[in-house]
Amino acid sequence: MRIGIAGIGRMGSNMVLRLMEGGCTLVVWNRTAAKVAPLVAAGASAAATPRDLAAAVEVVITSLTDSSAIEAVYDGPHGLLSGDVKDKVFLETSTVSPDVAPRLAKRVKAKGATFVECPVSGNATAARSGSLLGLIGAEPQDAARIKPLLDRLCRRVLLAGPVGSGSVLKLAVNLPLMIYWQALGEQLAMASMLPVDPAELLDFLSETSGAAVMLKQRAPAIVAKLTDAASGPGTFSLDNGIKDIEAMLSEGRRRGLELPLVQRTLECYEQFRRETSGHEEVSSLPVYWAKRHRS
């Protein structure tokens, strides 16, 4: 199968490697061309434009930052939909507001192609190992058509409903984690007066009933920041966290839902961003609150 991936960030690049290992032929495109070079060295082909990418493959996977990036890649002068894409399949895996996918699906279907929304839950390591969770929004027959491919990337997939439903479920999945980082900060602030080594404390907390699964993965970086050591590269920025929280609140308003914890969490994230940078790793939030209350 010839597959194209537009958007070669940490998730997209690991999807490429995973699919190539499974025998697929990959064509890649990214706005920043330098990110494509390692994948070309690994055996993928590079497309000059999104239009060229779509022309060269049967299935196009997009993994993009936000709705503006999606608009540019799909609808630009040399965008994915600027050429003949009849009978191709477009698989959109980005985390965006639930109103984006239905609008995009209409444009894709008008070109005679199939659209499946499937934001994924998991990190770059999960993308590399094929253990993501896939949250599908599509017609059942379209979901069935793309499921063999998704099974190479995901350990489990769920058809949440028609297009748009996958994005709603992805926001619901992310909601407790966004709240958790703030809760961990308050937990660390409470424990900061105790004479316990930070590494031992975080390891112990990761075993407790209130811990998020993600804590074990991010604990070393959090400990490094608590002790003012080098913490290594981030995996998910504060800006992206705020983007997701704002989308949760917007969808809640649209559905008439009260989300008071989410609203207060947004205020805490925004306070942290005002004093640091939106490029900061989101799991640095607990460190900010722990140090703030300690000082």
Mean pLDDT value: 94
Report the β-strand fraction as a percent range. Answer: 5-15%
What is the CATH topology of the largest domain?
Rossmann fold
- As laid out across the biggest beta sheet, the strand order is 3-2-1-4-5-6
- Tell me the number of structural domains: 2
How would you sum up the major sheet? 6 strands, parallel
What separation lies between the terminal Cα atoms? Answer: 57 Å
Q: Which value, in Å, is the CA radius of gyration?
A: 20 Å
Tell me which CATH architecture of the largest domain applies here: 3-Layer(aba) Sandwich
The low-confidence runs, each spanning 5 or more residues with pLDDT under 50, are none
Query: H/E order of the elements?
Result: EHEHEHEHEHEEHEHEHHHHHH
Which term fits the overall shape?
A: globular
Count every helix, treating DSSP H or I runs of 4 or more residues as helices: 13
Describe this structure in words.
With 295 residues, the protein is α/β, with parallel strands linked by helices. It has 13 helices and 9 strands. The chain has helices spanning 10-21, 37-41, 50-56, 67-75, 100-110, 124-129, 140-153, 165-191, 198-205, 214-226, 238-254, 260-275, 285-294, and strands at 2-6, 25-29, 45-46, 59-62, 89-92, 114-117, 120-121, 132-137, 154-161. The strands form 2 sheets. It has a 6-stranded parallel sheet with strand order 3-2-1-4-5-6, with helices on both faces. The radius of gyration is 20 Å and the shape is globular.
